[in-house]
């Protein structure tokens, strides 16, 4: 090493090779940035896709409603027209026992709700509506919510 201290020799060699080190580091940073961009793009598209799937817009009786009397029906409005052939609507009492409901129907008009008529009035208590349906694209959506009959009406 011609009388050059080891630290100085290594420092000179590092400077000579810096053109090899920095491009690798730059490529690594670019790859990480590209990977993060792809991941963010996939996450955004997934969120967009989930947003556009069939969702429940509103219901009658509404979630957490307090009704003074039995409702005549359960009506569900969705963001898009559900496939009625696979749509299921169930009504459960506080113990989880199914309550009789007619098969769900829907008018042909745009924006019409899915309706399940109660063949007879229900008594005082908490009830849970459980629904499951499918959009035309095959995506299945489901949900549940509760309401109360016999409390002070809201």
Give structural attributes.
Immunoglobulin-like, 154 residues, alpha+beta, single chain, 4-stranded antiparallel beta sheet, elongated, 5-stranded mixed beta sheet, 2 domains
What this model shows, in words?
- With 154 residues, this protein is of the alpha+beta class.
- The chain folds into two domains: 1-52; 56-149, Immunoglobulin-like (Sandwich), CATH 2.60.40.1220.
- Helix content is 31%, strand content 30%.
- The strands form two sheets. Strands 2-9-8-4-5 form a five-stranded mixed sheet, with no helix packed on it. A four-stranded antiparallel sheet has the order 1-3-7-6, with no helix packed on it.
- Strand 8 and strand 9 (140-149) form a beta hairpin.
- The radius of gyration is 31 Å and the shape is elongated.
- The N and C termini lie far apart (91 Å).
- The relative contact order is 0.17.
- The model is unreliable at 42-50 (pLDDT under 50).
Task: Record the SSE blueprint.
Blueprint (H helix, E strand, L loop, with lengths): L5 H47 L3 E5 L5 E2 L5 E6 L9 E5 L5 E2 L5 E2 L7 E4 L7 E10 L5 E10 L5
- Low-confidence spans: pLDDT under 50, at least 5 residues? 42-50
Helix-strand category: alpha+beta
Q: What's the domain count?
A: 2
Q: Mind describing the biggest β-sheet?
A: 5 strands, mixed
Strand content: 25-35%
Mean residue pLDDT: 81
Strand order of the largest sheet: 2-9-8-4-5
Tally of DSSP β-strands: 9
Text of the CATH class of the largest domain: Mainly Beta
User: What's the Cα radius of gyration?
Assistant: 31 Å
Instruction: From the 3D structure, determine the CATH topology of the largest domain.
Output: Immunoglobulin-like
Series of secondary-structure elements, N-terminal to C-terminal: HEEEEEEEEE
> What level of helicity do the residues show?
25-40%
Instruction: Give the count of helical stretches.
Output: 1
